Request: fold
Amino acid sequence: MKFELNKSGFEIIENVFSNEEVNEIIELLEPQEINKEFGIREFLTSRPQLSEKVFSKRLLAIVQKISPGCQKAIKSIYFDKPPNANWVVNWHQDLTINLKNRLEFENFKNWRENSQRIVVQPPIEILENIFTIRIHLDDCSKENGALRVIENSHKKGVIEIKEWMLNKNGIERICEVKRGGILIMKPLLLHSSKRTENQNNRRVIHIEFTDKELPSGLFWKEILELKSSNSYVV
Reply:
């Protein structure tokens, strides 16, 4: 699994969560909040019951398989792409992290600040040591906005998107994932998604992990400590 992630930049694993486990997660979603917002940041930080369900023994075992030294998640987002809130996500890489504070360090650039978070593009070695797990609460097909990725593009560092768009080099893959499955990806992987073409939701919990530490004095905006799990073998 780790070999495939490093080789292609992404990996799909089906049946990580059973139908019963997915139902339990959905039951803990706050309907009024979820219905009015199609993207919620720091989603798991203030939801301990939900966090406990999401960080199942099987998911933690997969995290440890990918990165044995990983003890924290650094970002959690919930999003949906329902028929009444449909949009296109253009080709891009995930190049930023969220921090609590700002200090000037070499190769930390493109700082942005607002009332909720401080965003920065960190050095390439930090980006290379982050991986994302997207937990799918619905079947996700090409008809309802499945992620599209360019295989192996994570190995090319930071890509100039406008220049790449002229030729679109690389093999495009559509990452269809069934309910209860996960998509693992590297943030430097080029990815995009189209509009939903059917009437189905695409509910996803997006979590980013790393075993990399920040320079002394910088702090992650969100940290979710992971409990070790040796009881489930992947």
Remarks:
- Confidence is low (pLDDT under 50) at residues 230-234.
- Residues 24 and 53 are 8 Å apart (CA to CA).
- The longest strand covers residues 72-79.
- The first helix runs from residue 2 to 8.
